[in-house]
Design brief:
Protein name: M48 family metalloprotease
Strand content: under 5%
Cofactor: Zn(2+)
InterPro entries: Mito/Outer_Membr_Metalloprot, Peptidase_M48, TPR-like_helical_dom_sf
Mean pLDDT: 79
Radius of gyration: 23 Å
Pfam families: Peptidase_M48 (PF01435), TPR_19 (PF14559)
Low-confidence stretches: 1-46, 181-199, 241-256
Order of helices and strands: HHHHEEEHHHHHHHHHHHHHHHHHHHHH
Shape: flat
Largest sheet: 3 strands, mixed
Number of domains: 2
Strand order of the largest sheet: 1-3-2
GO molecular function: metallopeptidase activity
């Protein structure tokens, strides 16, 4: 889905990546749309198999996480990924596809899909949404592109420019596998490929197919399908208002909008009603948090505060979330007494919303009230044992109180629940280091780097750990880990070399 203006194509790592690989229901000129999806056939299916597509996605995300606009907030990304998971598992076909949804701090209303099931959601999209179903509609459309393998098809078009795109991409990712120090320049090479913006401009058929699949997912997952219609309608209006102004909110007219809106409305009328009425109040709190984070990239804080205060008059979960947003903003500004007062207005300590309790723990840590932070975090873990954000707050409280041994014990159980959460290994490494367990600290950091896709850095950490050890058994274990990662690097390189 591409509905960003030209100015969104920022000169950061995600900029060229989003241009080159974003799925789109773009506001783009008609001539930028390929006439139809390329014929996959046996050759293109082999060229970009699901395994290779995932490898590309992981390598891209390794670089994307370094971008300053990437939102590395587990609470936000867990919510978005769970939202994506609930949709993907409700798909009529292709439900086995792994979906990872992450946030990007950018006020533009935008979302994009990368290879391998990675979906980026701009903060501006969430902040501008008036319901959870509106965000779900965007995510569902993107998942529709993923499940129909539109990304793979677009990246393997049998044209010279398509080959150049893949060759540039492969060269940059191979540089990353080799531990190249100037990888940013390699990734920027994606933006130099001929007609990148046209490579993944999907056809009318592909866009309507993503709409159809997305609407069906929403209905099966219990979301209101009208959420997708409302989001598209907002985009249509913004595009029409800014048409011809140059540098408006959207690049140009969307020639398919009216047709697609009609098609969506007809499908909704012809389908059975949604199987449920999902409406997670946590959405409003995630939205409030992203509004504060987004303010760091240009929105005047006074405007953010004013909007929160307006929403506090609306009543219900939205009003309480606005108080939470004010508390979060105050905490970020180190106004601890004001943050405490806003938290009470948000319903703490009686509210049944995990982000509010999470914020209370963070406030106690900043106040250096260790006993309070430990007590609140323990109560929160007991109340929300499956919440990653709560678990991380517990670790923060333990480490801040100097209880690294207890933190390690808790981290071991947390890693069993969330084995792919990189932050847990990083925190583990910090506690090991403070306890003067240098070998285990480096092995934990190696696991952290492996989870984020930085395999050369992981191998280097293991080599350092091995050099510190005099235990033959430990050295042998580390040797096995190094060989495994080296073999993975070689296998990934072999996959990528096919496109050079």
């Amino acid at each position: 889905m591409r509905f960003f203006k030209a100015g969104f194509l920022r000169k950061t790592l995600f900029g060229p990546l989003a241009v080159g690989m974003a799925c789109s229901f773009a506001v783009t000129p008609l001539q930028a749309q390929p006439s139809g999806l390329p014929n996959l056939g046996a050759a293109s299916a082999a060229d970009l198999s699901p395994a290779l597509e995932r490898t590309l996605g992981e390598a891209i995300m390794e670089q994307g996480r370094r971008d300053p606009t990437y939102v590395a907030d587990p609470e936000i990304n867990q919510y978005l990924t769970q939202l994506g998971h609930s949709l993907a598992t409700s798909a009529a076909t292709g439900a086995g596809q792994e979906i990872t949804v992450f946030a990007v701090r950018d006020p533009q209303i935008n979302a994009f899909a990368l290879p391998g099931g990675y979906i980026g959601i701009n903060s501006g999209l969430v902040v501008s949404s008036e319901s959870e179903s509106e965000v779900a509609g965007v995510v569902a459309h993107e998942i529709g592109h993923v499940l129909q393998r539109h990304v793979a098809r677009g990246m393997t078009q049998q044209e010279r420019s398509g080959h150049l795109l893949m060759a540039s991409m492969a060269a940059a990712l191979i540089a990353g596998l080799a531990g190249g120090g100037d990888l940013a320049m390699g990734v920027a090479a994606f933006g130099q490929a001929a007609a990148i913006d046209q490579q993944l401009g999907f056809s009318r058929q592909a866009e309507q197919e993503a709409d159809r699949v997305g609407l069906d997912m929403m209905r099966r997952a219990g979301f209101d399908p009208q959420g997708m219609v409302k989001t598209f309608g907002r985009l249509m209006n913004a595009s029409r208002l800014n048409e011809g102004t140059g540098g408006g909110a959207y690049a140009s007219t969307h020639p398919l909008s009216i047709q697609r809106m009609s098609d969506m409305e007809n499908r909704i009328r012809s389908q059975a009603a949604s199987s449920g009425a999902r409406n997670d109040d946590v959405f409003w709190y995630i939205r409030a948090k992203l509004r504060v984070m987004q303010a760091r990239s240009g929105t005047p804080p006074a405007n953010v505060v004013a909007e929160f205060k307006r929403e506090t008059t609306l009543g219900g979960p939205r009003a309480e979330a606005a108080w939470y947003g004010l508390a979060y903003a105050a905490l970020q500004g180190n106004d601890l007494s004001q943050a405490e007062e806003y938290l009470k207005q948000a319903g703490w300590p009686t509210t049944d919303i995990a982000p509010v309790h999470n914020l209370a723990v963070a406030l106690r840590i900043k106040q250096k009230r260790w006993d309070g932070a430990l007590r609140l975090s323990q109560e929160a873990v007991q109340r929300w044992p499956q919440d990653l954000g709560i678990a991380l707050s517990r670790v923060d409280a333990l480490q801040a109180a100097g209880q690294d041994t207890e933190a390690l014990t808790f981290l071991q159980s947390a890693i069993k629940k969330w084995p792919r959460e990189a932050r847990l290994y990083q925190l583990q490494a910090g506690s090991y280091e403070r306890l003067n367990q240098g070998i285990e600290a480096r092995r934990a950091m190696a696991r952290y780097y492996e989870q984020v896709g930085a395999l050369p850095a992981a191998i280097e950490q293991l080599k350092q750990a091995r050099a510190l050890s005099t235990d033959f058994y430990v050295q042998s274990q580390i040797d096995v880990e190094i060989r495994r990662l080296q073999e993975t690097v070689l296998a990934n390189r072999a996959l990528l070399e096919r496109f050079r």
